[in-house]
């Protein structure tokens, strides 16, 4: 998988209020209103970046990854992994219920995504997911928050290599 610097990958034309065009080196996507979310407090360390949209790569080898595309500053966009990709492994039902109560989110509208970090070491790419500070989304209200979980059992840098190998091995179980 080849992923270049997001500031080189994404160009934006904000000419239409209902639809923005995002052009990636691996796909072209139209951002529609239903894919946009507002993070009123921004991300930790980036409190002034509030308007995002989710883009799905058309290339199947990049699925289940998505791009959290920053509509305010496309140079600050992120690769993310939807919670569904973890098949219930990351955030337990009890944790989801507690988070839903914290942000007054209807359980049917709650989605969880994890920020992915790509590391290069000795000509090899590695990926980790931040399970400790997921982004909690209320799809009904189009609002999201980055939430730091209290439990130390969730890692800030959870290695994805072995995890995906295990999922692939047991996908038919």
Task: Describe the fold and architecture.
- The structure is a single chain.
- This protein is of the alpha+beta class.
- It has one domain (35-169): BH3618-like (Roll).
- The protein has helices spanning 6-9, 93-103, 160-169, and strands spanning 11-13, 19-23, 28-32, 36-38, 51-55, 66-70, 78-82, 110-121, 124-129, 135-138, 143-146, 158-159.
- Strand 8 (110-121) and strand 9 (124-129) form a beta hairpin.
- The longest helix is centred in the middle third of the chain and has 11 residues, at 93-103.
- The radius of gyration is 16 Å and the shape is globular.
- Mean pLDDT is 76; it is low at 1-28.
Helix-residue proportion: 10-25%
**Oligomerization:** single chain
How many H/I helical runs?
A: 3
CATH class: Mainly Beta
**What is the average per-residue confidence, as pLDDT, rounded to a whole number?**
76
Characteristic terms for this protein:
single chain; 173 residues; alpha+beta; BH3618-like; 9-stranded antiparallel β-sheet; 3-stranded antiparallel β-sheet; 14% helix; globular; disordered N terminus
Short description:
This protein has 173 residues and is α+β, with helices and mostly antiparallel strands.
Describe the secondary structure blueprint for this structure.
Elements: H1 6-9, E1 11-13, E2 19-23, E3 28-32, E4 36-38, E5 51-55, E6 66-70, E7 78-82, H2 93-103, E8 110-121, E9 124-129, E10 135-138, E11 143-146, E12 158-159, H3 160-169
Antiparallel strand pairs: 1-2, 2-3, 4-5, 5-6, 6-7, 7-8, 8-9, 8-10, 9-12, 10-11
């Amino acid at each position: 998988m080849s992923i270049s610097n997001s500031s080189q990958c994404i160009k934006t034309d904000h000419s239409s209020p209902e639809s923005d065009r995002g052009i990636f080196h691996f796909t072209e996507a139209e951002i529609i209103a239903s894919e946009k979310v507002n993070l009123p407090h921004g991300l930790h360390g980036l409190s002034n970046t509030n308007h995002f949209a989710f883009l799905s790569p058309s290339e199947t080898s990049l699925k289940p990854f998505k791009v959290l595309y920053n509509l305010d500053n496309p140079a600050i966009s992120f690769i993310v992994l939807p919670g569904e990709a973890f098949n219930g492994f990351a955030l337990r039902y009890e944790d989801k219920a507690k988070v839903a109560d914290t942000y007054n989110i209807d359980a049917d509208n709650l989605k969880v995504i994890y920020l992915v970090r790509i590391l290069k070491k000795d000509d090899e790419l590695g990926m980790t997911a931040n399970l400790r500070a997921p982004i909690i989304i209320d799809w009904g209200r189009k609002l999201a928050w980055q939430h730091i979980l209290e439990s130390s059992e969730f890692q800030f840098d959870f290695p994805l290599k072995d995890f995906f190998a295990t999922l692939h091995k047991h996908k038919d179980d």
